[in-house]
Amino acid sequence: MTLRNAFEGMAVESKQQIDALTNTQLRAAALNVEVADDLVTGTSAVTSGASTIVLTPTAGKAIRLKWVHLATSENNTAETIATVKLGGVVMYQTPLGVPGIFAHKAVRVGGLNQTLVVESSVSAQAIYVNVDYEEFQP
User: Fold this and answer.
1) What is the pLDDT of residues 101-137, one digit of tens each?
2) How far apart are the first and last CA of the chain?
3) Considering only CA atoms, which of 115, 107, 111 is closest in space to residue 132?
4) CB within 8 Å of 89: residues ≥ 6 apart
5) Domains of the chain, CATH where assigned
6) What is the CA angle 43-105-125, rounded to 5?
7) Which strand (E) or helix (H) includes residue 16?
């Protein structure tokens, strides 16, 4: 199997060939990444103990969540429980330490005009939220 890449247009046949590339070649190479036109990355920070809307779809559309990443800072002073809801339905609930991290790749689909919400069980503790999602017409 041939892996195609952007290293001077050459075909790479094996991991050994990739390992043999110099740092200069790696830094100079353009990255060819195929991403669906409708895939979007969103970021947000949740700092209250209440529900925070981190994503609202365009009117008349729904969210197809592809990947979610939550992280807390070492500057937080307490553990928090993060709850991720799509359209009011709990998708994930996880404790996040000081610091803490949670990441999950799975397709989760919301309904028409439903928002993505993250809740923190403790106020004044930052949760950083990163998501990959698509908006679609249900």
Assistant:
1) 999 999 999 999 999 999 989 888 888 899 999 999 9
2) 38
3) 107
4) 110
5) 1-34 (no CATH), 39-136 (2.60.120.40)
6) 45
7) helix 15-19
By residue count, the chain amounts to 138
Instruction: Report residue 93 CA to chain centroid gap.
Output: 16
Give 99's contacts (C-beta < 8 A, 6+ positions apart). Answer: 71, 72, 73, 74, 76
Interval 12-60: pLDDT, tens:
444 444 455 444 444 444 433 334 455 566 667 777 777 888 899 999 9
Strand 100-109's sheet: what is its strand order?
Answer: 39-46, 127-136, 62-72, 100-109
Query: Do 69 and 41 meet the contact criterion of CB atoms below 8 Å apart?
Result: no
